[in-house]
Amino acid sequence: MSHDLADASRPSLLAPQRAGADQDATARDATAHDAAPGAVAASAGDSRGWWRDAVIYQVYPRSFADSDGDGMGDLPGIRSRLPYLRDLGVDAVWLSPFYASPQADAGYDVSDYRAIDPMFGTLHDADALIRDAHALGLRIIVDLVPNHSSDQHEWFKRALREGPGSALRERYHFLPGKGENGELPPNDWESIFGGPAWTRTTNPDGTPGDWYLHLFAAEQPDFNWENPAVADEFRSILRFWLDMGVDGFRIDVAHGLVKAAGLPDMGSHDQLKLLGNAVLPFFDQDGVHEVYRSWRTILDEYPGERIAVAEAWTPTVARTANYVRADELHQAFNFQYLGTAWEAAELRRVIDLSLDAMRPVDAPTTWVLSNHDVVRHATRLADDTADRETGLRRARAASLLMLALPGSAYLYQGEELGLPEVTDLPDEVRQDPAFFRAAGQDGFRDGCRVPIPWSGTEAPYGFGPDGGSSWLPQPAEWARLSVAVQQGDPSSTLELYRSALAVRREHPALGAGTAVTWLDGYPEGVLAFRRDAAAGSFACTVNLGAEPVRIPAPGRLLLASTETGTVDGEILLPSDSTVWWAV
Fold it and tell me: How far apart are CA 100 and CA 39, in angstroms?
């Protein structure tokens, strides 16, 4: 987890903000990058890759820090808080989309992949943020959205304007409809956000036209990755941001780019229930891997070990492993682990399954408990969403368990504060596009996206300047969960995370590796495992049961998610708690 720096005085690579129109991407691909600047360099003695045991912190730009008081987080705000992330002890920062966008889906509808949306700042702000992060020893990973664009992307606008026969239409999925007058969608695919995955266009002369595919909102038309211009454009986009100095990409809907030949009907409804349970004609098609092999060759041209991370919903962890073969991507999110219940036998099964799946492809397993699309785990793990005490206790224990496992861990902003899901947002303030559709996702993702509290007793709790606001209202109870309140309090969740990341960085048996040794003979409901390194061993014990249990101490106590006791020389391990031991 070295933070040796590349040339911090690199020249600026800023270019004017512009639309992503056609470029000679093939010619750009042939350009040498021997002196590509900006990335945090890998340690000379580390040939295994910094990402294998990295702790990566997700920033949702709208909700992290607001520099100008408009209620919306921005890049200067993030830049001002980078020292906090350095002190927290993370290795890299992943930024959710900040590109130019109409914001139909919180920036995941991109109109220009080479420009910053004015609500977040400018390319100069992005350049300064990357430079400052590297100076602090932090790497920067940016979101990339290759499955679809905004309907305001120049390609799509031209495709509509030029009408049938336009070459631009070949870069998306435009098809005539079924029925006597083309009044029915081309197939029966359903949008992830609810309703048909097709919208009918109007021709330039005002007559009804072809339909276009959008697996998400109607404002997010899917690219046609069979068209060479799409592949060329994204190779160019990769190089643009790598030249800016970013250290990697998180690939949104990495499983979605390639569709089955002929776009066949599913033959069923309620297709959302099949997500992550089957290979669908629009998800996890084998053809996506050719795309990522091409991208890997570009990443490998740049110094500093630039990486790519797949958001890939697949039916099995074995299929997830396909995305991280040696010539493809570096990591893939482990959604099976995120969705595992707080139950000892099931967690052990998923941990084993995850490690076993990644070992044959020599890729690190990743672990994550929360992100911008799911209920925060401080609420999700409770038996009742109103039971904040149980939820926080389990969240702290689950975080220590996750950070004890071999591989790379992802943290979502605010989880280090123990923030719960905001479950009582009024309908009139919600902005999740799925909330406004008749079916589809539950539409309640806003609850995990509420801006985080930094200081003060009144909203916006330091999120922006005094007297400002926040784009989603913050609960009054968050005054006691702010960074300022928790900082320096040894019992706080913030200090627990700081201590855990410090121990993880220093202890030789934590982080990298591919296996755990399970320790049996413990009471029911207790998970215990050991990890060994030449310079020392480590053990982790987790009580997932409803009652405290007595166990022999396997070593010297390093860290505990809650206070422990002793009875007759044995450790009293409280319910919903995790303890780390030096063995």
Answer: 24
Give the per-residue pLDDT at 502. 98
**Two structure tokens written together for 271:** 């297709």
pTM listed for this prediction: 0.91
Within 359-444, residue ranges assigned H as helices are 377-380, 388-404
Burial letters 429-442, b for 16+ CB under 10 A, else e: ebbbbbbebeebbe
Output the pLDDT for position 438: 53
> Is residue 164 located within the same domain as residue 143?
no
- Single-letter residue type at 112: D
Shared domain for 415 and 529, answered yes or no, is: no
Residue 209 is part of which domain span?
Answer: 154-213
Same domain? 380 vs 421? yes
Q: Write the DSSP symbol of residue 304.
A: S
On whether both 391 and 462 belong to a single domain, the answer is yes
Query: What is the average pLDDT score of the chain?
Result: 90
Question: What is the C-alpha to C-alpha distance for residues 534 and 532, in angstroms, rounded to an integer?
Answer: 7
pLDDT in tens, 128-139: 999 999 999 999
Whether 252 is catalytic? yes
Burial class (CB in 10 A: 0-12, 13-18, 19+), 235: buried
Q: Residue 31 above 70 pLDDT? A: no
Domain assignment of residue 126, yes or no: yes
Same domain as 392, residue 438 = yes
Does 222 participate in catalysis according to the annotation? no
Based on the domain organization, do 356 and 469 belong to the same domain? Answer: yes
User: Is there a contact between 184 and 202 (Cβ–Cβ < 8 Å)?
Assistant: no
Of 301, 356, 495, 532, the active-site residue reads 301
3-class DSSP assignment, residue 338: helix
Q: Answer yes or no: do 130 and 159 share one domain.
A: no
For residue 28, pLDDT over 60 is answered with: no
Instruction: Look up residue 509 and give its amino acid.
Output: A
Domain boundary among 504, 529, 559: 504
* Same domain, yes or no: 85 and 196: no
Q: What is the pLDDT of residues 321-374, one digit of tens each?
A: 999 999 999 999 998 999 999 999 999 999 999 999 999 999 999 999 999 999
In CATH, what number is assigned to the domain containing residue 550? 2.60.40.1180
Of the residues 252, 328, 421, 576, which is catalytic?
Answer: 252
Residues contacting residue 165 through CB under 8 Å, at least 6 positions apart: none
Give dist(CA 213, CA 221) in Å, integer: 6
Q: Find the helix or strand (DSSP H, E) in which 143 lies.
A: strand 139-144
Rounded distance between C-alpha atoms, residue 105 and residue 86, angstroms = 30
φ, ψ at 550 (rounded to 5°): -100, 130
The count of domains in the chain is 3
